[in-house]
Structure formats: C-alpha cells, structure tokens
Design goal:
There is one protein chain. By secondary structure, the protein is an alpha+beta fold. The protein has ten helices and ten strands. The strands form four sheets. It has a four-stranded antiparallel sheet. Bound molecules: zinc ion.
Length: about 260
C-alpha cells in the first residue's frame, strides 16, 4: 500500500501533518502482554521462535540449519515448491512446456515426489529469498514438538499477546468500524502506508491537485517525487499505488510506475 486518491468533501479540513484520520483510529486497545512481549508465545516457544533469525544472538540462529524432521514438516504443509513443483524428468518438462504455452505458470501442476535433504534446503534458504513467515512458524512448531514442548501459549494472555481489563473492550475493538472521511467532489492524496493519512489539501480538480503535489515535491515513495504529468496520470488513472514496486530491476515509486503503465505487482 502507498498512495491513494480519495474523493472527499470540498470543505473537508484535516491537518496535513502525518496524523492518521481520526475515523481510522480504533479507540479500543488492550495492554500489550509484556510477559511474552505481545507474541502470545510461552517462554519455551518464544526462545525457539526468537532464535530462528537470532536477532539477539546470531550464534543461535537456525533458519539456515533446519533439521530433516523440519524439512518434512514443510513438505507436509506443501511448502518448498522450489524442490517439489519443478520438473525432474523429461515427462515433467513436457507437461510444464505445454502448460506455459497454454498461458499457465511454470510450476509443475503436481508434486514431483522429491524429498530434499536438510542440507539442500539450508543451502537454498541462504541463497535466495529463503523461508517466509509461514515456513518459520511451521519449523518452530516442528522443533517445539521434537523437544517435547507442550506449553505453547503464554499463560498470562492465553496466547493473544494482549490483556484486557474486561472482555467487553476486546469485543468493542473487534467490532469497531472505520469511518471514512466525508465524501464529496474534492480530490485529495492520502498515504495508506499506515491506516490512512491525508497528504495534501483538498482540490476541486485533478489538475490543481497534481500542480500542488508537484510544486510541493510531495513524496510518492520515500524520497522520490513525481512530475506534474505523472501525478496527473496517477490521479486520472489507477488512483492507487503501492509504496514501491520492482520493475525492470529497479525499485521505482508506485506513482511513477503506475503513470508509466508498469504493472502494480
Ligand atoms: Zn502473553
């Protein structure tokens, strides 16, 4: 998420200083459980989970040294597709070739039955994007099981990571509905990186907004800004841009990329 054009009432007047629109602020919040640092994990599970990346102590890091039972847990959850959903013989290659020529992607449509060794998986994890948060969670659970840890949840917050004085407030937080700014004919740039923050005054036309954004060097992504034409195209076009996208080997601002007709991948 990144930038969005909202159509709001012309007299909508809210500070343009990075403050979240009050209608998007959930007024009910619980107390973060400090026993588990808000993770909801038992101390035993948290130790395993924290050491995955080893932020505090890299000597304990194990995301590049998982064991064979953890590999199996990942396979059971249909992960590790780089090993199991790639062609490993001529028949597979033919199937994928036909799939791609029919407009499909290059994954083998079924499991090839290959069981990678832990060594292979660890080498893979170090060389590419590696394990995502889902893989981490699967491995943490598998390791906890192997170590005989049965207490997985923090007993103080029952695994939620949050403490409530009364359940009625938890319910209110859950039921809280966002209130949009008053709708109307105006054009306004919003940041959607947080819950939602106005980033410009409200203007009557896309041209006026684009002019203001360009003249004020409004940020389209981090430190980059867009030209008048790029902003205008963005306002008339998608009106929405991710924070930054990879395209042709470089990260460009979402606004720039949308205006250039690049994909919003
Ligand atoms: Zn807790």
């Amino acid at each position: 998420m990144g930038r969005e054009i909202k159509r709001v009432a012309l007299d909508f007047d809210y500070p343009v200083n990075g403050m979240i629109w009050k209608g998007f602020h959930n007024p009910y919040s619980g107390l973060k459980c400090s026993a588990c640092d808000g993770t909801g994990e038992s101390p035993e599970l948290k130790e395993i989970s924290d050491s995955w990346y080893g932020f505090d102590d890299t000597s304990k890091r194990w995301c590049y040294s998982i064991t064979q039972d953890e590999v199996q847990a990942l396979l059971d959850e249909r992960r590790l597709m780089d090993f199991t959903r790639v062609p490993i013989n001529d028949e597979h290659k033919e199937i994928v070739k036909n799939k791609v020529s029919d407009g499909g992607n290059s994954w083998l449509p079924f499991d090839n039955g290959y069981v990678p060794t832990a060594e292979e998986v660890n080498k893979w994890a170090e060389s590419g994007f590696g394990h995502d948060a889902i893989n981490k969670w699967i491995c943490v659970k598998a390791r906890a099981k192997r170590l005989g840890i049965t207490e997985l949840e923090c007993k103080h917050c029952n695994g939620s990571g949050v403490l409530w004085a009364d359940e009625k407030y938890a319910k209110l937080q859950d039921e809280f509905e966002y209130i949009e700014p008053p709708a109307g004919d105006g054009y306004q740039l919003w940041s959607t990186t947080t819950e939602g923050t106005p980033m410009s005054p409200v203007f009557k036309t896309p041209e006026e907004l684009a002019k203001w954004l360009h003249e004020n060097n409004a940020s389209s992504f981090g430190h980059s800004t867009a030209s008048y034409e790029q902003w205008l195209k963005f306002i008339y076009g998608p009106g929405w841009a991710p924070s930054g996208i990879m395209s042709k080997g470089r990260i460009s601002s979402g606004v720039e990329a949308s205006a250039n007709g690049e994909s919003n991948g």
